[in-house]
Amino acid sequence: MNTKPSNSPAALTRRQFIQHSAAAATFAWPMLASARTFGANDEIRVAIVGCGGRGGAHIAGHGSQKGVRIAAVCDPDRVRLKAAADGIEKRFKYRPDEVVDVRKLMERKDIDAVSVATMQYWHSLPVIWACETGRDVYVEKPLAHFIWEGRQMVNAARKHNRLVQVGTQARSRDTDRQSYEFIRSGQLGKIKYIVCCANKPRKSIGRRTEPLPIPDTLDYELWCGPARKEPIFRDKLQYDCSFIWNTGDGESCNQGVHELDMARWVLGETGLPKRMMSIGGRFVFNDVGEVPNTQICYYDYSVPVIYEVHNLLASKDSKDASNFRGVKTDTLVQCEGGHVLMHAGVVTDNDGKQIKKFTGGERHFENFIQAMRSGKRSDLHADVLEGHISTSICHAGNVSYRIGRKAGAAEMRAQIGELPLFQETLDRYLAHLKAHDIEAGESLLGPWLEWDAATERFKDNAKANKLVRGFYRKPFDVPEVKA
Predict the structure, then answer these.
(1) Using an 8 Å Cβ cutoff, are 45 and 71 in contact?
(2) Structural domains in the chain (count)
(3) pLDDT per residue over 25-68, tens digit each?
(4) Does some domain include residue 197?
(5) Distance between CA atoms of 468 and 394, rounded to whole angstroms?
(6) Are the CB atoms for 278 and 251 separated by under 8 Å?
(7) What's the CATH code of the domain at 420?
(8) Less Cβ crowding at N or C end of the chain, within 10 Å?
(9) Strand pairing partners for 457?
(10) What DSSP character marks residue 218?
(11) Are residues 228 and 473 in contact, defined by beta-carbon separation less than 8 angstroms?
(12) Helix-, strand-, coil-residue percentages of the chain, each rounded to 5
């Protein structure tokens, strides 16, 4: 096909619209943007894709920078779209264009960068399309909804020589960067292990008997995009889609990519661990949610790396979240001479005495714009490849969980084997279940999975590899990109 339909979908027949949508999803886009390096005085025009909570952060992060203009906002929800444009007009004294369909956004010639703040199931296509049309990209974490599609995003960035920054903003946070430098200096001795945790209380997403009505102001076809188009039986459409596998990946991926990215960074690891395993379950809520709200993952790196999720409170009678050594959400790096909390920037010796405290802010959006002006990928703090690897670690733990089976505590201990840190983690997990009157046998015990770095697949596990490759709804298939 050499030309793209120019008709508005609203004026087409149903058959023509389907044909138009398929063409837009699979079309080899012409180079519409400039694909150039920007000088210090050049204006950079950014389009924000996704106008929810993180979209607001993107608007503030980009719009407040000198020499950056938000040229357009894009969302299939017209209420959110208008609210975003209204907010920009009020704050920055100009009004961006409002675009419902991200494919229409890609046809424009006046956009230099695309900032993707959608849920992760809608990350890959805008990133790939933006690269194909010569734009640089800032994209939220977790990078991708499936491991395979993350690699296609990396390939697109490399093939078209574009800058793609992933929103793992701890890499641009002063506390984490100073903690990294302190640990790597060796002043606390060698790293013994790392415990990452997300003790973030969540609430039930509900269980409806009738499907949730879809408002007329939302293009539900576009909202679903690559995901299965299904009736909604939870209480809210937006954000709570994080807790359904069709559109989300749960806490250990959504939040976990921050902490596991820090763990991998400080260890100097450039790939996934050789093997991983997960145990967990979705307890108490009795809702339509599918992702675990209580989970532990073990990652077999050069030193053990643990990830713990507790979306329930500490106990059925508690009003506070669980913690690990007083930590709720952070990356705790245990060294020979003490431990470091990377997000908090706190260094504590083995006697419990605080010996250092790092402070400072976070400038991740600024780092992206600076890299656009220099034109150097090396200036990015969180290049797409780094985001792909760290996101894939989180997915790998979830894959183990998703193909797991119900098992009791004895089977869990037997499968863990001679791994003292993991056994201690299991002790905490079982104690947490007991505090909520939950039987251990209600848990899913995931298998050990071995990773093949060369193929980016699991070894000898077809069931697990189906979740690596993922699934897409036509016409929103994610294309295979050869770098």
Answers:
(1) yes
(2) 1
(3) 445 666 666 667 788 889 999 999 999 999 999 999 999 999 99
(4) yes
(5) 12
(6) no
(7) 3.30.360.10
(8) N
(9) 452
(10) B
(11) yes
(12) 35, 20, 45
Could you tell me the mean pLDDT of each successive run of 10 residues in the chain, 483 residues long? Answer: 35 40 52 72 96 97 98 98 98 98 96 98 98 97 98 98 98 98 98 97 97 98 98 97 97 96 98 98 98 98 98 96 95 98 98 97 98 97 98 98 98 98 98 98 98 98 98 96 91
Question: Cβ(441)–Cβ(407) under 8 Å?
Answer: yes
Give the structural domain span for 336: 174-360+384-458
Closest by CA to 103, choosing from 36, 20, 35, is 20
Mean pLDDT of the chain: 93
Closest to 221 (Cα-Cα) out of 100, 106, 310, 318: 100
CA 88 and chain centroid, separation: 25
**Could you identify the residue written with the tokens 């009791």?**
408
Tokens of 292: 């675990």
Nearest to 422 by CA among 278, 273, 263: 278
Q: What is the model's pTM?
A: 0.93
What's the CA gap between 387 and 392, in Å, rounded? 8
- Residues 394-439: tens digit of each pLDDT: 999 999 999 999 999 999 999 999 999 999 999 999 999 999 999 9
Beta-carbon contacts of 307 under 8 Å, excluding residues fewer than 6 positions away, are: 196, 197, 198, 252, 256, 259, 260, 295, 296, 297, 299, 394, 397
Confirm whether 238 is domain-assigned: yes
The DSSP code sequence of 422-482 is HHHHHHHHHHHHHHTT--GGGSEEPPPEEEETTTTEETT-HHHHHHHH----TT-PPPP--
Put residue 375 in one of left, alpha, beta given phi > 0 → left and psi -120 to 50 → alpha: left
Q: Tell me, what amino acid is at 295?
A: Q
Give the tokens for residue 259: 């902490």
Distance of alpha carbon 308 from alpha carbon 252, whole angstroms: 8
Nearest-angstrom CA–CA distance, 292 and 284: 11
Query: 384-402 and 462-469 helices cross at what angle (nearest 10)?
Result: 140
d(C-alpha 180, C-alpha 390), whole Å: 16
Q: Within a domain: residue 10?
A: no
Residue 317 makes CB contacts below 8 A (sequence gap 6+) with: none
| 71: DSSP letter | E
Q: Which two tokens stand for residue 302?
A: 């050069």
Q: At what angle do helices 384-402 and 147-159 cross, to 10 degrees?
A: 170
CB 120 within 8 A of CB 474: no
Residue 256 lies in a domain: yes
Q: How far is CA 429 from CA 278, 302, 395, 441, in A?
A: 12, 24, 20, 12
